[in-house]
Amino acid sequence: MIRSFKSPMEYVQGRDALSQLGDRVAPIAETALVLGDSDVLEIVGDQAEASLEGSDVDATLEEFGGESSETEIDRITAVAREVDADVIVGAGGGKALDTAKAVRENVGGAMVSMPTIASTDSPTSSLSVIYSDDGEFERYRFYESHPDLVLVDTSIIAGAPVRFFASGIGDAMATWFEADAVHRTDGENFFDEDPTYAAHSLSSLCYDLLRDHGVSSIRAVENGIVTESVEAVTEANTLLSGLGFENGGLAAAHSIHNGLTQLEETHHATHGEKVNFGTLTQLVLEGRSNAFIADVIDFSVDVGLPVTLAGLGVEDPSHDDLDRVAQATVADEETIHNAFDVSSDEVRDAMIAADELGSERLS
Known about the structure:
Layout: E1 3-4, E2 11-14, H1 21-25, E3 31-36, H2 38-54, E4 58-63, H3 70-83, E5 87-92, H4 94-107, E6 110-115, E7 127-131, E8 137-142, E9 149-153, H5 154-159, H6 162-184, E10 194-195, H7 197-222, H8 228-248, H9 252-260, H10 271-286, H11 290-302, H12 319-329, H13 344-362
Parallel strand pairs: 1-10, 2-9, 3-4, 3-5, 5-6, 6-9
Antiparallel strand pairs: 7-8
GO molecular function: metal ion binding; oxidoreductase activity, acting on CH-OH group of donors
Family: Belongs to the iron-containing alcohol dehydrogenase family.
Domain Alcohol dehydrogenase iron-type/glycerol dehydrogenase GldA: 8-154
């Protein structure tokens, strides 16, 4: 039995951490390409450029198109080669960061994850989720190297819309339930090896921080302020969830997310919102008690996460719609097989049951 644990080279988090970007990049690079969408560049572009230039790192800002698709990756790769960038700085949400990781893989050099929202566990990972140009999940793309630096400025995180912060809680909450399912069924982590005890423990800590600080942190972000609860949940959403899912393994919740992307109505829902419904469905598949699932639903509602298909934009789905989602969920390459031996019919029925339980809570 071989167990493995892999991680980024450096993780930095705190109020005004962006000011340290140049000092931390200078030892590893001379020319930076900073990638972010128009809104993100408006928020961090000038400060990132000033910090890099102040440390003698040439900086070019490039606007991200919005999808971590092969088309966008190829376009940004050409830009990186044109400016001879030896570090790619991805700023923004998971799709921008995943695109930056793919570009680094294409051109070489270093990579910096600089999330401006604590909405996913993408920043620390050595993989990209690749979507079509229309936003449908296509595949995972794996890399040998993790980001060289993950830089999280919690003053920026707290200033972002609270929906993104809540979304990160949904994504991070799944980390524990999936890692624990993999642990109990002797499944594998993302590196096709056995998870370490450390990965299982970090995933548990991730969940504990969310339950202890989740509601308080949401209230703080609603007011645009940084508190110790915001620091705790940002760390859970970003660092602990990232280390947990890669090293502890994924199971059903993320496969159900991937299946849900087959329905165009869900494309407005965030990654973490869809994952949260996947978590509830996984708990039904596991046969968890009504009281246990009700507790998770209550917490989800308290932090503003959807607990029904309607909450994801799918009003009155047809039998064919749910079958399509379920069949995509159990595709051969999906992570659900890491811990579950289930059919598409069982997944469909579990989604219906989870939706009913969520609807009862909201009625």
